[in-house]
Amino acid sequence: MPDRKFTSVLDILDIDEPCVKAHLIDSRGVEKIILIPTYNDARKVVYQERPHNVDSCYTLQAEQLLSRAGAQLFFGISGGGGGRSRFFDDIGQQIRDAEHSLETNRDQLKVLEGDKKKVVDPANRLGKELEDAKARFFPFFSLFLFLHLFFSSSLLSCDLLFLFFIMIVEC
After folding, report:
1. What's the average model confidence in pLDDT over 44-57?
2. CATH code assigned at 21
3. DSSP letters along 37-105, please?
């Protein structure tokens, strides 16, 4: 076992079955794999301190450093060390963050729906008023077109026709 100041994979696993625990120790050496948060700290421990009974070290970025006699080996398991290991993710925190984001989005939706109502209601009212105005003036407009077509062949001027239309509308 490594020095107790280091956390090993075996330390963080909660295994109730002794057979499973023994298998992981025998086949994977989980008691000799230590976990250190940052790459620089892990590098210092593995390559300078060289603790006894440590085969490798993993960082929170899923980077693996191997402890071999005199060799400095590094493997970026997550494709160059840019990703996070799912093993270290706090799922509960991710769920809380997602719920908070959902609640924030719901609040924003309520505000936007209120803003939409402030715009749509007056627009609907204006559209109705326009339709009502068209309905009121359509008969007069139709009469004007009829008279214009009827008298366009005669000698009546458009000015007289327009005055006639104005008189009809005012009545």
Report:
1. 81
2. 3.30.70
3. SSHHHHHIIIIII--TT--EEE-TT-EEEEEETTEEEEEETTTTTTS--GGG--HHHHHHHHHHHHHHH
